[in-house]
Amino acid sequence: MTSGQKVAFSLLISVLAFCAFTVVAFSGLFDILEVNFYQPFVQEIKEKKIDEIESAQTEYFDTLIRRFDSFAGNPSVKTYIESHPADSSVRSREILRSSLLSSTPALSGIRIISNNGRNLFFSTFPSDIISSKNGTSYRNYDNLEEASFKSVKAGDSFAFSSNSTEKARIIKEGSKNRIIISLPFLNSKNEIVATILFYCDSASFSQFLFSRNLIDINGYASLLSVDTNEKVGFGGFVFGIPNYARDSLQKQILEKWQKNDGENLWLVQSEESPELKAGAENEFSVSEEQGKKFCVFSRKPAREDFGYLAFLYDESELKFPPFMRILLLATAFVTFYLAFFLILSFKHDDIVIIRDKISRYQNEFFIAYRKMGEPKSAAYLLEQKNIVEERTLKSLGKKGEKHAAEFKAIFDSSWNELLAVLGG
Asked: What is the C-alpha separation between 219 and 335, in angstroms, rounded?
């Protein structure tokens, strides 16, 4: 088989094998490769990212808690519960409060609530303040549209601990996009008399991550939480949740978190999908006819009240992108072609073997003839030609018989060239 025939035959077999491989690939092979190779690769990338964000989350809350605990423990701040504090204490605590608000952009307000859950000793929220001729007073906490005092009350177990983070409780309010950090409030006699609450904007966490180059401007987190009194404050941060499907996806994610079954990757499906409005370039309406599937990669933090962390991304990210499928198919075709061509090349071409044999026997005759020294007659050369031809043909066996005509033509041509060299 000539080289051209090998190329053509290899190409034909490769095309047939490639067609069969393509059918198999789209019938389930791609799914197997995605589950066993591609999805673990994607998960590893997400896991590294969530590791970095978890470390940043710990740093973020530790910084806030230490700052707030330092404020709450200041002697002048403790006078907020006193009816007639000294003027110097009033000035000092106002300076501290202003300094805290200016140095902590996340902080939106402070409340100090008595242990009875009703009386407010202090609040920075204007809606809590009641002004009168006798001075400033505050509304009762239980009359405000806020979470129950029981759900935000600071714990007493670590109230006297030197570790600020042990004292604090973190309550998440997704419906109001805020985080409440609750600390026990002690009087000048170091008695727990109240709870001090620091209200922080949940978007500040995303801003903190953005400042660390951990997320981009479009990757801000949404705060999801359970708002029922039984488990108020439970929840976490989800990156990549679309606004149009927030309500339906929030319910599924929170339910999965509450199950706490240890599963880190699962699918959710929105009850709505966005549709571009007719005649509008960037305006979307919501269709409830078909939902869109998303993958959730979630992590439970070492300290649960810091909040779960989760990435929400399109289900297609767990599948090979089109260019990768094309690349795999192209690689398979090239591999098939080279493999078949190599297999065919293992078997030597009969004509090549015939040429090699003729060349070897004629060269042996040429060397022996040159050693004789004297030129020989044409009859002698003709006789030797027949002898060499017979020996060569005999050494080829069936190949010589199969290609007798080609052998004769090649031998005669090569012998004539040899005679020309000998000058005969």
From this structure: 41
* Whole-number Cα distances in Å, 304 to 22, 82, 165, 206, 371: 48, 35, 13, 19, 99
120-123, strands of its sheet edge to edge: 120-123, 107-114, 192-201, 178-186, 169-173
| 347 vs 87, residue with greater confidence | 87
Cα dihedral 152→156→160→163 (10° resolution): -50
| Region of poorest pLDDT, from 86-100, 202-216, 326-340, 373-387 | 373-387
More confident residue, 354 or 52: 52
Partners of 131 in the β-ladder = 136
195: enclosing H helix or E strand: strand 192-201
Quote the tokens at residue 64: 């806030």
What whole-number distance in Å separates Cα of residue 104 and Cα of residue 207?
12
Q: Is 322 exposed, middle or buried (0-12, 13-18, 19+ CB in 10 A)?
A: exposed
CA distances from 234 to 49, 107, 173, 239, 356 (A): 23, 20, 8, 17, 85
- C-alpha 340/C-alpha 343 separation (Å) is 5
Question: Which two structure tokens, joined as six digits, stand for 62?
Answer: 């530790």
Q: In terms of C-beta density within 10 A (0-12 exposed, 13-18 middle, 19 or more buried), how is residue 74 classed?
A: middle
Cα–Cα distance between 273 and 292 in angstroms, integer? 6
| List of E strands, 226-369 | 235-239, 265-269, 273-276, 284-287, 293-299, 308-314
Task: Burial-class residue 253 by CB neighbours within 10 Å (0-12, 13-18, 19+).
Answer: buried
Give pLDDT tens digits for 51-92: 999 999 999 999 999 999 999 999 999 999 988 889 999 999
DSSP 199: E
Name 238's Cβ contacts closer than 8 Å, sequence gap at least 6: 221, 222, 224, 253, 296, 310, 311, 312
User: Contact 310/299 with Cβ under 8 angstroms?
Assistant: yes
Euclidean distance between CA atoms 62 and 60, whole angstroms: 6
Token representation of residue 90: 């009033």
CB 286 within 8 A of CB 273: yes
pTM for the full predicted model: 0.68
